[in-house]
Design a protein that fits this description.
Layout lengths: L3 E4 L20 E8 H6 L4 H20 L3 E7 L2 H12 L4 E4 L4 H9 L3 E3 L8 H11 L8 H12 L41 H10 L17 H15 L23 H6 L4 H14 L4 H24 L28 H13 L4 H15 L3 H11 L5 H12 L16 H7 L20 H12 L1 H4 L6 H8 L4 H17 L3
Parallel strand pairs: 1-2, 1-4, 2-3, 4-5
Helix pairs in contact: 2-7, 5-11, 6-11, 8-10, 10-11, 11-15, 13-17, 14-15, 17-20
Length: about 500
C-alpha cells in the first residue's frame, strides 16, 4: 500500500500541528524542499535565510528521531522537488497544512496537494472573516481593540467569571509608555548559540547567494529546544520589566525586555498558545505586574492574529496600495549607508546585523521616515520582508501598508503614525549626541524628521486636513511662519536621502 506524503513547509515546523499530529510515523513520509529559485528570487538577509533553512534542516532531524521517514531535498523549485519525490516514491496522497500566504496556497492547490486547515494560529482565517462580518464598524473599519476583546473572551484569557477583564481594564497601554530611564537601564542579554556542523552545512548551501547583512549571529534558535530556552529566558529574565518600557528605545541595547520570540511563532518552533500559557503561569505564581502580562497577551493573541486575519481578509492587491502616491525607493541610510541621523544609523545597523529590531524602531524610525520622505510602500514591504527574520509576507503587508505607512488611506489606522524629532527625543536616547537638532525645522542642522514631518502635513492637507485626530496638529501648522523655508529644506532633505548624503 502506498504511503502518504506530508509536505512540510518552512514555516510549519511543529509536529503537533494538524498535518502531523495524528499521523503514524511508520505510515507517513515527510517531504521538505528547499527551493533554489526561492533563495535566489530576492536579496535576503543572511539572518533570515540562515534561520529558515537551518530550522528546516534541524526539524527534519527531529522528525526522523520521532520515527518519520523524511525526504529532504534541495531542488531547483518547490514544484521540481515535488515532482522528483513523486517519481521516486509514488505516494498514495500528498497533504499539507494550509500555507500562510497566497502564493504558497495557489501553488499547492495547482499541484493538487490536499490542504488541511491550519491550526498554527488561535483564530483561523475563516473564523476571522466571520468575526469581521459581524464586527465591521459603520465606516467599514475593523478595530484591533474589538478583535482583542473578542479573543480574550472566547479563549478565556485574563477574564473573570462574569466576563470582565482581570484587573478591571482591557487595555493597560498607558502604563507601558515610559521613556528610557535616566541611567540607561539594565536589560537582560539575549541567549546565543555557538554555530555547529548544521550551521556550516547551511552556510555552504547559501554560499554564492547575494545576501545582505553580517555573518550568522547565533542569537536566533533554529530548533525547538533553543526556542523553548528563549521562551524560558524571556519569562524569567525579561517579562517582569517588559510592560513599562515596551515603547522605549536605547542606543546601547537592542531589545531591552522584548521577547524576540516572533520568528519562532512564525515558523512553528513555538505555538502562540504555549507562549501565552507560559506568561499566564508566571502571572499565577505572582510577582509580575499585570501591565507586563497584558502587554504580551495583547501582542500575541491580539495584534499578531489581527494582522494575520487582515492579510487574508484584504484583497490581494492591498500590497500595492499607495494612498499618497509615493515614488522614492528605500533610501541608502536604511540599507546601511553612512548617515548623520543617529537614530537611523543605529536602527539600520541593528537590522543589518540581527535581521530584527523591536516594534518602535520599526514604526517610528523606519516606517516614519519612509512615510515622511515619500518611500513607495511596496518597496518598504519588500525590503522588510527580505530583511527581517520574522518578515513573512502576511506580517509585513498589513503592518507596513496599513499601520506603518497609511498607504491604505485609513482602512486600518485612523491617522498616520508620523512624528517629528520631539517624539524620538522623548522615547529614545538617540537625539542627545545627534548632529541634528530635533527642535529645528529649517537650517543645515535641522532634524530631518522634524522638517519632513511639517512638510508632510503641509503637502497632504487635502487628504489629512479633515481628520479630527489631526485637528490640533493642523492648527499648529497654520501658525508656522516659516513654512516656505520648511518646504525648501524638505526638498533638500529628500534629495540627500536619495543620494545617501544625509
Amino acid at each position: 500500500m502506498a504511503t502518504d506524503t506530508v509536505w512540510v513547509l518552512g514555516d510549519q515546523l511543529d509536529e503537533r500541528l494538524a498535518h502531523l499530529a495524528d499521523r503514524d510515523p511508520a505510515a507517513t513520509r515527510v517531504l521538505m524542499v528547499v527551493s533554489r529559485v526561492k533563495l535566489e528570487s530576492r536579496r535576503w538577509s543572511r539572518q533570515r535565510a540562515h534561520f529558515y533553512v537551518a530550522s528546516m534542516r534541524r526539524f527534519a532531524d527531529r522528525l526522523r528521531s520521532l520515527g518519520f521517514t523524511v525526504d529532504w531535498r534541495v531542488a531547483d523549485s518547490m514544484q521540481a522537488g515535488l515532482e522528483h519525490h513523486i517519481a521516486e516514491h509514488r505516494p498514495g496522497r500528498i497533504v499539507a497544512l494550509e500555507p500562510a500566504n497566497r502564493a504558497g496556497t495557489a501553488l499547492l492547490e495547482r499541484l493538487g496537494v490536499q490542504l488541511i486547515p491550519s491550526d498554527q494560529f488561535l483564530c483561523h482565517r475563516d473564523e476571522f472573516r466571520s468575526w469581521a462580518t459581524e464586527h465591521r464598524r459603520r465606516d467599514g473599519s475593523l478595530l484591533m481593540e474589538d478583535f482583542y476583546r473578542w479573543q480574550r473572551r472566547r479563549l478565556g484569557i485574563l477574564i473573570e467569571e462574569d466576563g470582565s477583564p482581570v484587573g478591571g481594564r482591557w487595555n493597560l497601554d498607558e502604563e507601558n509608555r515610559l521613556p528610557p530611564p535616566a541611567d540607561g537601564g539594565q536589560w537582560p542579554e539575549a541567549p546565543v548559540d555557538e554555530p555547529d556542523a548544521i550551521d556550516s552545512e547551511v552556510d555552504s548551501l547559501l554560499s554564492g547567494l547575494d545576501l545582505t547583512g553580517g555573518p550568522w549571529s547565533g542569537i536566533w534558535a533554529t530548533d525547538r529546544e533553543g526556542a523553548l530556552r528563549r521562551l524560558t529566558h524571556f519569562v524569567e529574565e525579561a517579562l517582569p520589566g517588559f510592560g513599562p518600557y515596551e515603547d522605549a528605545v536605547v542606543s546601547h541595547h537592542r531589545h531591552l525586555n522584548h521577547s524576540m520570540l516572533s520568528p519562532y511563532l512564525n515558523n512553528g518552533l513555538l505555538h502562540p498558545r504555549e507562549v501565552v500559557d507560559a506568561v499566564l503561569a508566571a502571572h499565577r505564581e505572582g510577582g509580575i505586574p499585570l501591565n507586563s502580562i497584558e502587554g504580551v497577551v495583547r501582542q500575541v493573541i491580539g495584534w499578531r492574529e489581527y494582522i494575520a486575519g487582515l492579510y487574508w481578509t484584504n484583497d490581494a492587491d492591498y500590497i500595492d496600495a499607495n494612498h499618497f502616491g509615493n515614488s522614492m525607493e528605500v533610501p541608502p541610510a536604511l540599507l546601511g549607508a553612512a548617515t548623520n541621523m543617529n537614530c537611523v544609523a543605529h536602527v539600520a545597523r541593528w537590522v543589518a546585523e540581527d535581521g530584527w529590531t523591536h516594534h518602535i524602531p520599526r514604526l517610528m524610525v523606519i516606517a516614519n521616515l519612509a512615510t515622511l520622505a515619500g518611500v513607495r510602500p511596496r518597496a518598504l514591504v519588500d525590503w522588510m520582508w527580505e530583511t527581517f527574520v520574522d518578515g513573512a509576507e502576511w506580517v509585513m503587508v498589513p503592518n507596513v501598508v496599513g499601520m506603518g505607512m497609511y498607504a491604505d488611506g485609513g482602512a486600518m489606522s485612523t491617522k498616520p503614525y508620523v512624528a517629528g524629532g520631539n517624539y524620538l527625543s522623548k522615547m529614545t536616547d538617540f537625539c542627545g549626541p545627534c548632529s541634528f537638532d530635533r527642535r529645528r525645522r529649517t537650517g543645515e542642522d535641522a532634524c530631518p524628521f522634524t522638517t519632513l514631518y511639517w512638510d508632510f502635513l503641509d503637502r497632504h492637507r487635502d487628504q489629512l486636513g479633515g481628520n479630527h485626530r489631526l485637528a490640533r496638529v493642523y492648527a499648529n501648522l497654520n501658525r508656522l511662519s516659516d513654512i516656505a523655508e520648511v518646504r525648501e529644506r524638505a526638498v533638500e532633505v529628500r534629495a540627500r536621502l536619495v543620494a545617501g548624503t544625509l
